[in-house]
Amino acid sequence: MKKTSGFTLIELAIVLVIIGLLLGGVLKGQELINSAKAKNIANDFKNTQILLYGYQDKFRALPGDDTAAAAHVSGATAATTPAGTLGNAQINGDWNSTTITDESYLFWQHVRLAGLATGSTVIGAPEYIPRNADGGQIGIQSRAGFTTIVDANPMVGTFVVCSEGITGRLAKQIDVQMDDGVTNSGSVRVVSVPGPSLANAQVLDGNTFIVCMSF
Is the pTM of this model over 0.90? Predict the structure, then answer.
């Protein structure tokens, strides 16, 4: 009879150690990817703020709200909606607007044509809308008229930048990086749909959320 042999205890131990090392490497790699994504999205918030102030400093007007946009930057389109709001020192329209005549939508064309940001300047083009590292839309608007997050303890500031489609895990990391680490207070808030912001325990890691920062 032919004798069969199996793994020895030492061989099994070596295999288990190798599997453990591989799993540890995968988990560590995923952690690094998540940290990089959170940092990238946090930079989106900061950079949008820089773009607004850069344009304002250069032209004494707000991008999107600029009545003389075509004179300031060649090829710029002046906003016509919301009606009667152009030049009122606010960026009117929703942060996630897809209406190509809204001030909040044209914000991106103006800062790009001014050489402050990269990206398409062709309004209505599929690649025109800026996206975060998870593929969600990024946008800005004035806090006046902002309805995505409505709390008893409202956000303070003049403007709000929002970004959507962000996993709960990243949303909480972003709040820690940029604010107080509490997702329903401070200048950074997290919400799943328009309404009150959510406490940390409600921001589940695997679900997607909207993150907003006021300044």
Answer: no
